[in-house]
Input
Amino acid sequence: MSEDQLSRLQKYSACDISDALLKLEKVEEGQRVCAGFLDGIVPHVGGIVSRGQPHASKIVIAPAFTVQFQPKGLVNGPDTLPKAPSSNITSGVQWSDLVPRNTIVVVQQPEGQKCAVLGGIHALNIDRKGAKGILISGRIRDLSELRKLDCPIWARGTSTVGASAEAKAYATQVPIDVGGVTIKPDDIVFCDLVEGVVVIPRGLLEDVIKFLQAHAEAEEGIKYAVKNGMSVSKAFAMWR
Output
């Protein structure tokens, strides 16, 4: 993602992004329409300031660095989890050591687990390495430590239990599934403090930006017309 693309995206909200994906994404018959929205992912720590964005902002945008956890004790994981053919994390290497700068770390935790997959030590390491954010499709812990960090953190929930009780890091930079949304390495994660989190497939990024420019003009036209007495039906007919 170029600086120009980032600058253009920051003008919009997560709702605008989903509007674009509704028009642009191809959805198989019978498949649930998500428009990139990650249901249930909410800000727990920070969320309004990120590295590379010195002024307070409600938007954090960066490429995804994906991490897949699996239930502890399973070699290949259950069939419900998309997975790499084999673990690509070298024995003795901790997953947070692999995180590159200027990414949003997206972690998939197996559903139904009560443990956290992110705590103070891994979060400190990710923050030190210069990630723009952390998004956990699962649980986090050590909130008092996490709140001392610069890195904004989003998650589904919290726990007091460490990951070693139930989960293990299995692979990085592989496709993962978050609530029915497939996230691939380097897809664009759009975290909006007010509206929620949306993921843009990397291949649709420029099409999304072009759509948003025309969509914003139409939305403003509709709002102006309705504010000045036009019915919504007529405004929609005129601008959509």
Notes: The helical segments are 3-9, 14-24, 120-128, 143-146, 205-227, 232-239. Residues 47-56 have pLDDT under 50 and may be disordered. The chain is about 25% helix and 25% strand. Strands lie at 42-45, 59-71, 104-108, 133-140, 153-158, 167-172, 176-178, 181-183, 188-192, 196-200.
